[in-house]
Amino acid sequence: MAGEARDIKLRIDNVKKVFDGRGGEMVALNGVSMDILDNEFICVVGPSGCGKSTLLNIIAGLSEPTSGAVYCNGKEVQGTGTERGVVFQQYALFPWLTVRKNVMFALEMRGVKGKEAQEEAMTYLKMVDLEKFADHYPKELSGGMKQRVAIARAYAAKPEVLLMDEPFGALDAQTRTQLQTELIATWEKEKKTCFFITHDVDEAILLAQRVVIMSARPGRIKEIVPIDIPHPRNQETKMTPRFMELKNHIWGQVYQEYLEVRK
Amino acid sequence: MKKKQSSLVDRVPNWMWLLLSFLAAMLLWYILSIIPKTSRAFPNQFVVLSSIATMIQRGVLHTDIGSSLISAGAGYAFGFIIALPVAILMAWYRPVKYIIEPWIQFIRNIPPLAYVPLIVIAAGVGRRPQIIVITIATFLIMCVTIYQGVVNVDETLIKAARVLGANDKDIFARVIAPATLPFILTAVRLGASVALTTLIAAESTGASAGLGMRIRSLNSNFETAPMLLYIIIIGIIGITVEKIIKTLERRLTGWQEKREI
Ligand SMILES: Nc1ncnc2c1ncn2[C@@H]1O[C@H](COP(=O)(O)OP(=O)(O)O)[C@@H](O)[C@H]1O
Ligand SMILES: [Mg+2]
User: Fold this and answer.
1) Beta strand pairing status for A8-21 and A67-72?
2) Does the Cβ of A53 fall within 6 Å of ligand 1?
3) Which CATH architecture does the domain made up of A8-83+161-262 adopt?
4) Which of A102, B58, B90, B243 is at 20 to 30 A from A203, Cα to Cα?
5) Global ipTM
6) Contact yes or no for A105 and B257 at CB 8 A
């Protein structure tokens, strides 16, 4: 197992999730398996309700699979762990803490205290270009700025894997593009393993090395599409013929699933 | 048309409006004091003010205020001390909620005056039944409000803390407590108001002093001037306490996106 797991950061092994609702059992995930390599950027697309968030929560350790398991660095995931960081769509900043103190929360959980934590927080805020807003409260920031703080906070926990659940889903198109560009640049520098959920096919192709298309009811992996567009990528990448080709293919597959759900 | 009007309204500062409101109240009061039908119930400002001296001479003004503040303050404090853990237990353990919440909803709709005799029979006369009545009334309102706060803590914030490595103790102290604080302060404010509005009922337990008790005893002699004075004193205490708590709320929970209740 050890030799084989060397390059595999996350192994999702036949994960099944059943919810007991009022209307009986609901199969949200039906045997999902895939390996995510170290340094890989994975994007997951699929119609809403196909179990993307459920899968992310299981990887994060916020929820348990009904059967199957997730392995991180070859070790079975039991509950949350700081090696797996999460960025939520709703930002999830602590509204009673200033921007700096939100980032310091992550540092303090890691055992960094006092002045050292204050200074280190600033380096993470510089990374997302928000050091000027260190002493502001979240309510004073725009959505895009809030999400940048959330990303800085996630990085401050020094995770080995970043799990992001439609992090740009609530932002306007322009802010979204800007954050995509920032995220891709950061990844090209740090190559941190990412598991990124989105419903925006363009976003998925721009960011990912592999795009996972999920099918609905019950949630399953329909296809995994390798994105063979070289780095560095930027917004202009979206104009290239290869991008268009991939987009047509992925979009077609997602649309089929979308029609499936509507039925 | 509407716009022009509001711009004039906006230009007058708040304190000026407050002053206008006060003067209008004084005028209304004075009118009531000269209309023959209402003049007995509403003696004019000068008569009421001079009754301060009367009540001081009788040696009851400060003991009444003191006694009421002690009863209301103690009952209110006990109400809070009980409400906080009960609300948290209700929010965390559903069986506790299912058992206790119906009781609270049931008792909340009964005017305290109705159960005062039972409390006097059980606890005797004096300070104790007064405190018990106020404890019950303030407990009910504060427990419901704090419970809402604990239940409404944003689940994603707890998740966010957990994935950053927070344990249960961290989550309680650093997420649930601050997230609930606005509701606790609202509870404290509503509780203070209930403590005062319950005063008359509480002091109908055979109290020997107190603002509520005195109003009832003045009533039997138709002494309307000191009665009105005492009513105004209760009002002043109420608004002062509310202002203090509101200032505290602004200081401690200014981080909120919006404020409710
Ligand atoms: N806690 C839950 N209890 C019951 N059903 C749930 C729960 N969470 C998600 N579901 C259901 O599981 C399915 C997948 O949900 P989700 O993973 O949120 O989908 P997605 O993120 O792809 O939109 C949905 O049909 C949803 O209603
Ligand atoms: Mg989702």
Assistant:
1) antiparallel
2) yes
3) 3-Layer(aba) Sandwich (3.40)
4) A102
5) 0.88
6) no
